[in-house]
């Protein structure tokens, strides 16, 4: 249980509100996921084919993708063979270790946002409809404002009814300027204006909203490429981040989303929204494993400060808190 | 990515067991594993999958498949039948109250598409049933949600009832219904705020609205891309409110949409409509058998046919048919046909609807270059009237001119002429074949 101890030590000494938030936000996730792993372990006396089949199902139900599940199960089987594990309780720790491996191992890419010190940082938000792009921008603007940065928001969703107004409300709430044009105008033109405004006013951060679009709409994806080109042209090195917002309740389609948006806009990070609502967090595993895009931020609620940095270790801790606490007490 | 269709998966399984000569129970088990995986990949809830597979394998083992000469086809048939049955019939009827106005409540998670669907539904009520709906902006929480509904109302010229975001949704609903009675609206559509199914306070608020408004319909709006959690969401909303229907949104994406099956299985509530696009008329009736094909990754041939029928000009098609028979098909007709195919939408989308298209050699991952078609059009347009009607008249000098005029090369012109000739030959063969059989008209594809 040294692995759990290490993790626990890391967090129990910190009175870390972030960890609490993660735990709070993931209570539902944990209850079902960990609970089921525990049930499984208690029910089986032997580590056999049926045991793995059921474990596979648990992972499926957590929205982990097919390939990731297969990989995980294969590796577990190997590990079990190698260490000659007979008791399901011993598999438990191996499962957790493997999960952390996947969270951490896939890429060395930083989960920190690529912020430019002393010059303008441009962050572009992309994603399908209704995932929470505008809300995420509002929350992030709030955070940067708190840090004393000068923030400008670009109302690039000129398509959906009320989208510009929605961003404006956030602008007022947070107290930052919103650059906009009339509904229905060219989003690339809005970006151009916003970039000019950001440069002229010496802003630190420009957060660019875009309209939600399904990834199979070729024309809309082309429009997004154009928006990005305008940003690239106006500010060398920009956009410094292209964040794909993914709804945590989304199933396997999230992988296709990530893949297609990456092709079109070279996504640098993922914001996993609505993680407080879903009972599963497994999609993170699949995303980390199958596409080397790091999850950078996590939306854990509807309040302004409910946006957190994604920390794989904390995430796993939140997911397995029950197991970990029980394990170290023994 | 592991998004193969069930047909492909079963095919692979059969290759493995082909040498055996006879399919036994173990093989059926193996096949069922494939069925299970296909459904899981489509986001059907795992418990639903389990029950379903059990049912199908009973039928499969019960002789039907084992005796069949093509067990793979048989399995697919059984699976599809069971899926369709599970999803129920087509039910897109909307309740009508004997004491108007009929009240419809729209509920769901955040970002599912409630407001957009409210607009679409109002549009449908007016267009199809000649009704006069009043839209009610009861989402006081999300910034500019009211504005969104108001904008939609304005676009479609529907009145929108709103009391701003400082009045409780229950009060808004109460006053809206009174207002609807006064103004003789026969439908009231209440757009509620998105909320988590586990949020007790907000779910309580919905119950209050329900008690007060006594709605005739409560529609759960669900994102078609929802994963395993769809079951929990639907169950929770259903237990607390008693849903009367489900609207599946964003089905114009490329998700398999297994959530549809999960929701239906868990709540027994009919899926009434599907959202197929961002335009306000993109709300369609739910077709269980099409959904079944989609979940299994078997292509959506029916939608393709419908699309073609809506876009192909019947008169023109008849004329074309005549031309093919008399072999007077020219480059002009070819151009016409190209135009008609293109008007059906991006070719990539059309291809995706074909069953097995993603497995076909050369077709998988190939995005069709629309520009290539543009070049073909340019070549034809650079021809003179004579050349279009009598391609055999195109000699070297003419080819050079055509290439120059269309900004292409002689090779490209040659290729097109060759393809055109081949096509004509094929037509001749087909018409000959047809003659031998019966007199019935030669049908073009897409007819």
From TrEMBL, chain A:
Q: Give the top-level enzyme category.
A: hydrolase
Membrane topology of the entry:
Peripheral membrane protein
Which PROSITE patterns does the protein's record reference? SRP54 (PS00300)
SMART domains in the record = AAA, SRP54, SRP54_N
The record's principal subcellular location, in a coarse class, is membrane
Q: Where in the cell is it found?
A: Cell membrane; Cytoplasm
The record's catalysed reaction(s) read:
GTP + H2O = GDP + phosphate + H(+)
Q: What does this protein do?
A: Involved in targeting and insertion of nascent membrane proteins into the cytoplasmic membrane. Acts as a receptor for the complex formed by the signal recognition particle (SRP) and the ribosome-nascent chain (RNC).
Q: What family does the database annotate?
A: Belongs to the GTP-binding SRP family. FtsY subfamily.
Provide the assembly information.
Part of the signal recognition particle protein translocation system, which is composed of SRP and FtsY.
Q: What is this protein called?
A: Signal recognition particle receptor FtsY
What is the originating organism of this protein?
Peribacillus deserti
UniProtKB/TrEMBL annotation, chain B:
Q: Where in this chain does the record put each SRP54-type proteins GTP-binding domain?
A: 270-283
EC number(s) reported in the record: 3.6.5.4
* Location in or out of the cell: Cytoplasm
Q: Which reaction does it catalyse?
A: GTP + H2O = GDP + phosphate + H(+)
Q: Is this entry keyworded Cell inner membrane?
A: no
Residues that bind GTP, according to the entry? 108-115, 191-195, 249-252
Q: Which protein is depicted? A: Signal recognition particle protein
